[in-house]
Amino acid sequence: TVLTADHPHSGTKDDVIEEYYQAFDDFISKHNKAHTAVTIGCDANCPLRTTTDSNDEDSEIIGRNGDTLKRKNKSNNHLRNLLHKQQLRATNTDYAHKRYDTFYHFSTRTTIQLDYFFATKNARPSIHAVKRVSNGVESDHAAVMLKLHLQKEKITTNGYEGSKPKRSLIKWRELKGDEASTYAGIVQENLQKQCE
After folding, report:
1. Which residues make Cβ contacts (< 8 Å) with residue 142, sequence separation at least 6?
2. What does the alpha-carbon distance between residue 93 and residue 52 come to, in Å, rounded to a whole number?
3. Cα(68)–Cα(46) distance, rounded to whole angstroms?
4. pLDDT digits (tens, 9 = 90+) for 129-175
5. The pTM is what?
6. Alpha-carbon gap, residue 132 to 120, rounded angstroms
7. Could you tell me if 97 and 128 are in contact, meaning their C-beta atoms sit under 8 angstroms apart?
């Protein structure tokens, strides 16, 4: 499951920030099941510090690479609590690169890392790199690229792994009356099941 989010900026009222993080936590909980890999790409609108101490309580959610400035805003605690509760990790902080800043403040001319990919433990083995990239579009945010290695699902039929489903030829022009509507209903039902 891949989710995307744009967290409230630092000028947002406290009660709106709290509402947002509660709703986002509820939304993630619906997707963050034991067997599901969840990756969230987001503009967190708050910086996360790095940690080099494995005894640090944040070492499970933040790695040793990234913006080392210890800046904070009122969303930091909400974001850290969310990451701990949902067992998400800021994967950007796991990879060493030359630059980590993803946001350029035009008026103060400062840069900071605000954009992240967060991932559950199930998703992390599939992630091979996360880094800031120049995407050629003029913006105050730089793009963050995530490289994933996805495995193909094995086909199973009747509980026997590796057996292939039988193929059959349907002569669409020859279907008439009840036969055509019955088959059309089956196709539509199967498509709906696949989209759920």
Report:
1. 101, 102, 103, 104, 115, 132, 133, 134, 135
2. 11
3. 13
4. 888 887 667 778 888 888 888 766 555 555 545 555 455 555 555 55
5. 0.70
6. 20
7. no
